Structure formats: C-alpha cells, structure tokens
Amino acid sequence: MVRDRAGRLQRRTGLSLGPIVAFLAVALVAGAGLFTWDYLWRQQQEAARRPAPPEVIARNLVENIIGRNTVKASQVDAATGVAAVTFESATFKPEPAQSKQNSREFLTAEAELASQAILAQLEQVRRVNLTIVDPKSGATLATATAVRDRPVQMTYVDPRLR
C-alpha cells in the first residue's frame, strides 16, 4: 500500500521519495556533526580563557625574576592567604668568589623582588614564605617571609651566611 502511494505521488508530481529521504538523512548527519564540532570548539576556547591556578602564577612570577626552571615548589593556600615558594638562588656563590655581605645582599634582593611580585599580582595572598636553596647542593640557604606593607624578614640558615 505504501508502495502504491509512493508510486501515485511519483506519477502525479514526478517526485520520488527515495532521494528526498536520503538528502534529509545526509543533511541531518552533517548538521549534527557541525553542531558537535562547534560545541567542542567552544569548550576548548573557554578552557583556554580561564586564568591559570594561583600556584602556576606564583611560579611564573618568580621564574620571570630569578630565572627559568629555578622554582622547585609553589603552593598557594587561598583560605589562609599564604603562598609558599621554594627556588634556587641565581646569585649565590660560595665564600671565595663572593663575600658573605654581598651574598646576603643578593639573597635579600632576590627575596624582595620575588615576594613583591607575588604580593602585587595575587590579591588573595597576604603573606609569602620563600625558601632559597643552593642550586648546586640543594641545601637551604635562607628563608624569607613577606607581608604587605612591611619589609621582608630574612633568616639565613646556611653557616656560610651567618
């Protein structure tokens, strides 16, 4: 009976339903594919626009000042407002090459620059704890604590700096 109706439609109008159904099926599949592609592309673009986590921002800020691949650890606790960063000193040289006073000044300058960069860029951070390590041995040279609108408090751990 269906065949009879299709045959009558073709005889009356000259249209065949087979090519029309095939065209609609191809158009539906192509439309669904384009919709899926557009949806996935928009998701990818939204993910690219999201800001980086605070740990990554703190790491990048310190590496921009001290040097590439010098940060060993970076943590930001948004609840307490504390950032903790461990990095290798770019300026420390043992006693014969550099006096103790110069070494201390350079380490203090590194700590001030790194902490001020973090405090200026990350509004949720109220205190920065820095650990500065020797790039050769990995031993802790000094620690620093920085709070907004106060000078950096340095503690020299290495006996060569005391």
Textual characterization of the structure:
This protein is 49% helix and 20% strand. Helix 3 packs antiparallel against helix 4.
Strand order of the largest sheet: 1-2-3-4-5
The proportion of residues in beta strands is 15-25%
User: Which whole number gives the mean pLDDT?
Assistant: 91
Helix proportion: 40-55%
Structural class based on helices, strands and sheet pairing: alpha+beta
How would you briefly describe this protein structure?
This protein is α+β, with helices and mostly antiparallel strands and 162 residues long. The chain has helices spanning 2-13, 17-49, 54-66, 100-121, and strands at 71-77, 82-88, 127-133, 140-147, 153-156.
Question: Helices and strands in order, then pairings?
Answer:
Blueprint: H1 2-13, H2 17-49, H3 54-66, E1 71-77, E2 82-88, H4 100-121, E3 127-133, E4 140-147, E5 153-156
Parallel strand pairs: 2-3
Antiparallel strand pairs: 1-2, 3-4, 4-5
Helix pairs in contact: 3-4
Task: Throw out a few tags for this protein.
single chain; 162 residues; alpha+beta; 5 strands; 49% helix
